[in-house]
Each structure stands twice: as C-alpha cells, then as structure tokens.
C-alpha cells in the first residue's frame, strides 16, 4: 500500500480512491487470468459442442455477450498463455496487466520469456513498447515446419483432416477456396476480363450480383438447397468454401460412371437398414438425417445386394420462401448469438423425414455450422405456437416471440413441456401412499 504523507483532505481522498482503483484492477487482472486458464481448458477439451457452438469463441459470444473479435482474442490469448508458464504466473498474481500480456505475446519465445517478463515488470507500457522493438515480432527462432496433409476417419464416422502448407501452396488453396465460395453461388461460368483471367474485383462483383438476384428471387428461379448469396464474404466461411470446392469437382468428373467415388452413396436394404459403403462407422441416425436434408444418391438393394431403386434429393424450399425467411430473421442465421449471413440453409423445425411440411411456418434459416449442431443434437429447437425455443445442452434457453430476436429465458417452458411436467407430477402423486387420516379417524 502506498504511504501518503500529506494532510490535505483532497489529496487524501485522491490517494484513497487511487488505492481502491489499483486494488480493483489487481483483482480484475487475477480474475481475468483465471478466466483465460478456464477458457484454455474448455478449448483443449473440445467442449464447445456441449454449449451448442462450433467454437469456444462462439460460446463466449452467446453466454457472455462478447463481441466476435473479443471472443476470438480471448481464446487466442488463452491458448498462447499456456505455452509460457512464467508469464502466466505473473499474470495470475496481478503483476502484469492483460494489455501487457497481449503485447508480450507478439514477441515472446521460450528462449526470451524470462527476459521479457522481467522487462515488463520493470517498465511502463509505453516504455515497454519501445524496448520490445529490438526483439522483432511474431516470436523469432521457430524452426522450419514440416508441411503435410493428413486425413482420417473417426470412430463415429466423421472425417478429420489437418495439415500445414507452405506459403505458395497455401496461396493456391486460398484461391481455390475463393472458387469454392463462387461455386456455392451457382456461378457456373464467368467471363474473364481483358487479361484472360478473373480478377478479385470481377469475382466479388459477380458474387454481389448473384446476391442481389437471390434477394429478389421469384418462384421462377430453380430451387436451391442453400442460399449463400447473403452478406459479404467472411474469412471464417471456410467450411462452406471447402464444400463448394468439393461440389464443384464432383459436378464435373471425367465420367460419373467411371468415377463412382464422385457420388455420396447411401445403400439401403429392403428390411430398412442403411449404410455408407465406404464408411461403415457412420451411425444410422446420421444417415437418416443426410437422407432427409442432403443432396445425395441413394440406392435400395435386395437381399443379394442388387440395386433395385435409385433416386435424388427432395424437400427443398422455394426461392420465394428463402427470401421471406431471411427477411423475417434479419438476413442472418436465426440461432442465438450467431451472426453468419452466408451459406444459409432452410431447417425443418418438424423434420421433413418425420412428416414436417416445407412451409414458412416450419422453416428456419440456419448457417451450415448451426444446422450441423442441430443435427447432432447440441441445439434443440421447439415450436410453441408463434414462439420458438432454442434449447442448449448446457441448460440455457432462448425464446423468440413472433420471430423477434431470441431472448434468454432459462425458466421458460413450452406448452408441451408444461403438460409433460403436469403429467409427471400427477403420476408421482398417484405413486405416493395415501394419507393415514382415515385410519386415524377410525381409531
């Protein structure tokens, strides 16, 4: 604690307030350090799906009301901090502020960690900025990394892939992803400019033109499974861009008959069983959802394995329905906390496979990521009259009244849930032994 020698009342008040501010700042810093450690654990354990999100950052956005940039920053800082125990220890004690920690992470390496931490303890923030300039940026000293691409199939049938590319191959991949993004707009042909090649400006202009066309679509336009022309391109729409690449390649094989792997094939037997012939680990529930919602080729086989019927996709929303739905939901994904406005898919609240109708009252625009979370059971969507309940596995619930913005209300219940609770209470009451009052009166 700072010792104040003055007897001036104003100075004493200022010193007292300043001391309180410092104390609160240290407490906040310690709490933030502890929070980031918890965020790191949450991320490392892959628990985002439990909270109905694809990433930890999305969980922070929805549960804490953080901005998108702050949420991703917290996750990034939390993961980096785990690599530098000395830095994290000083942060935990409140001796280094969050701003200083963020600054050090731009320059810190395993070799200079102790030196930079001491420097931060000795200098103010502005002086530290100047002193760090001689260390360069980005953490020097990293060895030349291995470049690779690997792919595997998980026990539940999910396909996993990961890798690292050199800058040139990475640039080529990013360019291909841009073309994949275009494929999601259905732009089969674009006329190059004078140079004979499409420029970024020409591509972006074409995308914006299609986005405008789709926003004013009529029933005369062919039905589309995904409405990907809403909103500006965003860097995190990589999965959709990748799938655009995949669909683009599959749409133009050398010969579909000569390239059977260019199709997603589901084999169904006459007794009701179904499987993917090249991935037997996929659970039947996942196959059922794909059959109800995806573009695919399905095959029915007899007892000897002979294909007796084949077909393609059904149950698509019309362009006018898509336009109405995205307008009703603010031109973005309807899931609480999600602001994605690209690659929207029309979700059947009452599943089409279970008899749900393809009408506006039973459809909901969800981005491909949130749609997958609903499919996998991490988000449950219940319709209750004109209200929609978004129910998450972590116990949180958001309610949209008459297509308004969903508001958090963990205590809300649908009519069906209320009736189920009443039935359960009645059943419990019937199981409870009757009062012995009659016996008491007889005695």
Automatic annotation (TrEMBL):
The keyword Secreted does not apply. This is HNH endonuclease. The lineage of its organism: Bacteria, Bacillati, Actinomycetota, Actinomycetes, Mycobacteriales. Residues 320-372 form the HNH nuclease domain. Belongs to the Rv1128c/1148c/1588c/1702c/1945/3466 family. One of its GO terms (molecular function) is endonuclease activity. Gene3D superfamilies: 1.10.30.50. The keyword Hydrolase applies. Pfam families: DUF222, HNH. It comes from Corynebacterium stercoris. Keywords: Endonuclease, Hydrolase, Nuclease. It comes from the Bacteria.
């Amino acid at each position: 604690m700072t010792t104040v020698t003055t007897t001036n009342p104003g100075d004493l008040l200022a010193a007292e307030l300043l001391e309180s501010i410092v104390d609160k700042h240290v407490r906040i810093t310690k709490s933030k350090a502890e929070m980031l450690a918890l965020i790191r654990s949450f991320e490392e354990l892959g628990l985002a799906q439990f909270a109905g999100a694809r990433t930890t950052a999305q969980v922070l956005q929805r549960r804490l009301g953080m901005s998108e940039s702050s949420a991703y920053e917290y996750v990034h800082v939390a993961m980096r901090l785990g690599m530098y125990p000395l830095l994290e220890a000083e942060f935990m004690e409140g001796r280094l502020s969050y701003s200083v920690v963020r600054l050090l992470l731009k320059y810190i390496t395993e070799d200079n960690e102790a030196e930079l931490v001491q420097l931060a303890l000795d200098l103010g923030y502005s002086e530290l900025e100047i002193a760090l300039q001689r260390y360069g940026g980005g953490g020097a000293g990293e060895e030349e990394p291995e470049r690779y691409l690997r792919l595997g199939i998980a026990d539940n049938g999910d396909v996993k892939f990961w890798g690292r590319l050199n800058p040139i191959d990475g640039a080529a991949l990013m360019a291909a992803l841009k073309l994949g993004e275009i494929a999601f707009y259905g732009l089969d042909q674009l006329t190059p400019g004078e140079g004979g090649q499409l420029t970024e400006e020409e591509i972006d202009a074409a995308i914006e033109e299609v986005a405008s066309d789709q926003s004013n679509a009529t029933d005369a336009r062919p039905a589309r499974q995904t409405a990907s022309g809403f909103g500006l391109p965003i860097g995190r729409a990589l999965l959709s861009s990748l799938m655009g690449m995949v669909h683009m390649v599959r749409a133009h094989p050398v010969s579909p008959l000569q390239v059977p792997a260019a199709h997603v094939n589901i084999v169904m037997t006459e007794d009701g069983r179904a499987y993917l012939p090249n991935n037997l680990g996929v659970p039947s529930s996942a196959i059922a959802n794909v059959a109800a919602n995806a573009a695919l080729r399905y095959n029915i086989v007899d007892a000897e394995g002979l294909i007796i019927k084949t077909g393609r996709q059904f149950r698509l929303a019309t362009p006018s329905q898509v336009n109405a739905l995205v307008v009703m939901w603010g031109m973005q994904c309807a899931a609480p906390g999600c602001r994605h406005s690209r690659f929207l898919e029309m979700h059947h609240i009452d599943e089409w496979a279970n008899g749900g109708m393809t009408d506006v009252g039973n459809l909901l625009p969800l981005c491909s990521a949130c749609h997958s979370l609903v499919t996998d059971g991490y988000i449950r969507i219940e319709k209750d009259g004109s209200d929609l309940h978004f129910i998450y596995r972590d116990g949180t619930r958001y309610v949209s009244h008459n297509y308004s913005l969903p508001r958090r209300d963990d205590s809300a219940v649908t009519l069906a849930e209320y009736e189920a609770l009443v039935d359960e209470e009645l059943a419990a009451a019937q199981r409870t032994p009757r009062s012995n009052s009659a016996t008491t009166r007889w005695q």
